[in-house]
Amino acid sequence: MKFLFLLFPLIIFSQAKKDSIYENYIYSKAKCIEENKKDKILYDKLKREASEMDFNSLTRTLIDDLDERQFTRRYINFRYSIFRLECGSLDPGEYECEKYNLKDPFYNLRNWTTDDLIYLGKKFKDKFIIPSSVGSGFGYYEGYYYVDKEDAEKFKKFSVGKVKESGAKFYYYSKNSKDSLEISGNTGMDYIQFSFYNLPDHQVKVYQYINSKKTVKTYEYKYDKWEIIE
Questions:
Q1: Mean per-residue pLDDT for 38-42?
Q2: Cβ distance 117 to 131 under 8 Å?
Q3: What is the pLDDT of residues 78-92, one digit of tens each?
Q4: Is 70 exceeded by the pLDDT of residue 45?
Q5: What are the φ and ψ backbone dihedral angles of 105, each rounded to 5 degrees?
Q6: Predicted local distance difference test score (pLDDT) of residue 150
Q7: Cβ pair 188, 208 in contact under 8 A
Q8: pLDDT confidence of residue 137
Q9: Three-state SS for 122?
Q10: Is 33 helix (H, G, I), strand (E, B) or coil?
Q11: Is the pLDDT of residue 105 over 70?
């Protein structure tokens, strides 16, 4: 009897906890559905406007707008960082809400091709353009895009260089130099990286990072061309 007396509060507590988790799940699910209704309105607007914009010309415009005076070294490392870390809820009673990507659903670094990096190399005629490998959600990146058979077609217009210390081979582009490139793993480089926010009204906010300097500009697509509006 004494054992049952002690067990009864535990049963009550356990049931109350289950009820609390269930209520939290129902609430978070309803909240998610409501938020997604609002987000879908904006997402559909961005999607509709994206079909009316020329993103290829935006990429070339961003390259044209680069200030050559900011690049003082011989090598330019173009950093990819297109994966983002998605963190789910740590609460066991929280509904796992799949949200719309409202940051950069239609224009992001996936829009950039190797032809765009060649265009960058033609702008900086005396530089070596060295693309990095794709970054992870933590912002980590490899300094080189190492040679891989699967990427041979993608980088067919690029040359292959080598890291002195490891012998690892990587892709690079140079308009003028035809010599085989061999550099040290700690060779100084200028680096450039972009991130984007797709905005309504045919606009894209561009975050540009050149070495330690950050620049933010908003471009608007109007009359078949991109213009800086702020």
A1: 93
A2: yes
A3: 987 644 444 444 454
A4: yes
A5: -70, -30
A6: 64
A7: no
A8: 38
A9: helix
A10: helix
A11: yes
Q: What whole-number distance in Å separates Cα of residue 105 and Cα of residue 49?
A: 12
Strand ranges inside 9-137, DSSP E: 75-79, 128-131
CA–CA separation, 145 and 62 (whole Å): 22
- Comparing 9 with 175, which gets the higher pLDDT? 175
Token pair in block for residue 41:
């309105």
DSSP state of 186: T
Closest by alpha carbon to 195, among 151, 139, 144, 120? 139
Residues 6+ apart with CB under 8 A from 161: 128, 130, 169, 170, 171, 172, 180, 181, 182, 183
- Which residue in the block uniquely carries the two structure tokens 């308009």? 175
Report the C-alpha gap between 91 and 64 in whole angstroms. 47
d(CA 93, CA 207): 37
Integer-rounded Cα Rg, in Å, for the chain is 25
Which residue has 């998610």 as its token pair? 32
- Mean pLDDT computed over 47-75: 97
Other Cβ atoms closer than 10 A to 39: 15
Phi/psi for 29 (5° steps) reads -70, -45
Least-confidence region, from 121-130, 165-174, 201-210: 165-174
Query: What is the average pLDDT across 191-201?
Result: 95
Residues 6+ apart with CB under 8 A from 45: 200
**203 phi, psi to nearest 5 deg:** -125, 150
Handedness of CA 129, 224, 67, 124 (dihedral sign): positive
Report yes or no: 174 and 158 within 8 Å, Cβ to Cβ.
Answer: no
Domain ranges of the chain: 52-87+101-228
Supply 24's token pair: 């939290």
What residue type is 82 in one-letter code?
Answer: I
